[in-house]
């Protein structure tokens, strides 16, 4: 994120963020080949998965999905990673929406084809802090492949089920997911589109990359060298990087660089790899000022 940025201001008559039902970046879906192994690897980095979701009011775990939930700056987003086995072929960004039907209509007016609101099967989970059962009330807006970046909307009514203290307890000073790196063929187009639907500001960097700054996080968009679009990195805020490093396994600790960040290559599948970057709070504040 270093270097100067040139803001893209909206022209008179263009839709403002308040005209669209999206709130902010909500979560990222990562498809993994081995769910248990992925959960274990994230635990090594200090990120603890929430308990398995259950099917309705039964005690049967929902197969193939686990959630890494972080404390969100606001109650209208969840701030989490969904590990899925199986799942979409590429990692998916997901945004939250106050009104799915309004969002569907607005996206349609922008020429972005999308489907109707669909219901997610009844699920619940047990809060580890007090063992109470909580239903997961969720619906989702089906998006077509014509959308330049795969972004679904999750109804805001579902978000309260993710704001449970027992789901947000991580180790080694891990605070939250603060940024996402993606690659795209049309860097400028994708960045501006994300800036619009995520209530953000698209800003051009010194090179070919763009950044999208939302209320609570940032998304960096880089050129794709293989004509595919997807998530290539996830950035986490930790309270103190040195303390975080000292708690990690030695082989992981050695991967730290001199920029105040720790980058780890995480291969969720043979075809896809994602860089997990841990940034200290003080370093993050300096980056966001640039």
Helical run tally: 6
Distance between the termini: 7 Å
Helix-strand pattern: EEHEEEEHEEEEEEHEEEEHHEEH
* Strand coverage percent: 25-35%
Q: Would you give the CATH topology of the largest domain? A: 2,3-Dihydroxybiphenyl 1,2-Dioxygenase, domain 1
Residue runs with pLDDT of under 50 for 5 or more positions: 1-18
CATH class of the largest domain: Alpha Beta
Helix content: 10-25%
Q: Biggest sheet, strands in spatial order?
A: 1-13-14-15-12-16-18-17
* CATH level-two architecture of the largest domain: Roll
Q: Which structural class should the secondary elements be placed in?
A: alpha+beta
Average residue-wise pLDDT: 82
Q: Would you mind describing this structure in some detail?
A:
The protein is 17% helix and 35% strand. A hairpin with a 7-residue loop joins strand 17 and strand 18. The protein has 290 residues and is an alpha+beta fold. It has 2 domains: 19-167, 2,3-Dihydroxybiphenyl 1,2-Dioxygenase, domain 1 (Roll); 174-289, 2,3-Dihydroxybiphenyl 1,2-Dioxygenase, domain 1 (Roll). The chain has 6 helices and 18 strands. The model is unreliable at 1-18 (pLDDT under 50). The chain is globular.
Descriptive keywords:
alpha+beta, disordered N terminus, 290 residues, 2,3-Dihydroxybiphenyl 1,2-Dioxygenase, domain 1, 6 helices, globular
């Amino acid at each position: 994120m270093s270097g100067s940025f040139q803001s893209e201001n909206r022209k008179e008559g263009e839709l403002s963020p308040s005209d669209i039902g999206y709130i902010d970046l909500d979560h990222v879906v990562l498809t993994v080949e081995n769910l248990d192994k992925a959960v274990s690897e994230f635990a090594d980095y200090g990120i603890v998965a929430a308990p398995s979701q259950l099917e309705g009011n039964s005690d049967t775990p929902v197969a193939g999905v686990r959630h890494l939930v972080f404390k969100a700056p606001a109650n209208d987003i969840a701030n989490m990673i969904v590990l899925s086995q199986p799942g979409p072929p590429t990692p998916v960004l997901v945004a939250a929406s106050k009104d799915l039907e309004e969002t569907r209509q607005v996206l349609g007016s922008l020429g972005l084809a999308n489907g109707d609101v669909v219901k997610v099967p009844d699920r619940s989970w047990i809060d580890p802090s007090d063992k109470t059962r909580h239903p997961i009330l969720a619906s989702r807006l089906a998006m077509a492949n014509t959308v330049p970046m795969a972004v679904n909307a999750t109804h805001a009514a579902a978000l309260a089920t993710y704001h449970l203290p027992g789901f947000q307890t991580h180790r080694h000073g891990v605070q939250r997911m603060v940024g996402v790196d993606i690659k795209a063929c049309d860097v400028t187009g994708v960045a501006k589109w994300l800036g619009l639907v995520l209530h953000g500001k698209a800003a051009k960097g010194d090179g070919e990359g763009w950044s999208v700054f939302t209320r609570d996080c940032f998304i960096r968009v880089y050129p794709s060298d293989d004509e595919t679009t997807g998530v290539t990195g996830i950035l986490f805020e930790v309270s103190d990087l040195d303390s975080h490093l000292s708690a990690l396994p030695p082989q992981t600790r050695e991967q730290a660089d001199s920029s105040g960040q720790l980058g780890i290559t995480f291969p969720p599948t043979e075809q896809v790899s994602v860089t997990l970057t841990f940034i200290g709070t003080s370093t993050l504040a300096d980056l966001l000022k640039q």
